[in-house]
Write a structure and sequence with these properties.
alpha/beta
Length: 208
Amino acid sequence: VTIYANGAAVSSLLAPVLAQFSRTYPKLRFEVRITSARQAIDALVSAQADIAITLFAPKTAEVKIRARREIAYDVILPAGHALAGKDGISLADLATLPLALPEKNFAARQAFDALFGEAGISCEPVVTASSLEILKELVLDETAVTVLPAMAVKREIKSGQMVAIPLVGTKGVRTYVELCVAPDRELSFAASTLADFIEHFMQQSISK
């Protein structure tokens, strides 16, 4: 089964899904490609992908959305940070922190740039990176803070290494995790069974 997915959806959604699924179907094989949402949709349309899991996907009639769950982006801090115990962090306070953000071609970065622009607040990140893992490592090393869905650092939060603090005083940045398939192409047994499994996992593990 070939799966295309956004980076933030992989570590906390797709990886545990495949781990559980493989224990039930140990002979199935998977190929996972990390791409943008647009590339994932194009891969479905061109039959390069069986399944796509997207964040910030453009609206299109080219794919069928099997499942959709809304998520919010939070401020991700190392657990020992001075602000780690707060109930919320304002956009103005966030702008004063050493901030690591995705590169400008990422939809999440564009959404945050628009949020700062609407508030009239200047924000210059100390690091920009195309890698989710780099953003996480900078937080773990207490070099910077970042903004991600809490689900993207679920393991680190559970282990007590990071905390996720909501943005307050602003509409924030929200998007959908979407499980997509091609509307006019029948899935194989393996892909169909996996899609069912992912849909159930999303319903159980991601709040609306």
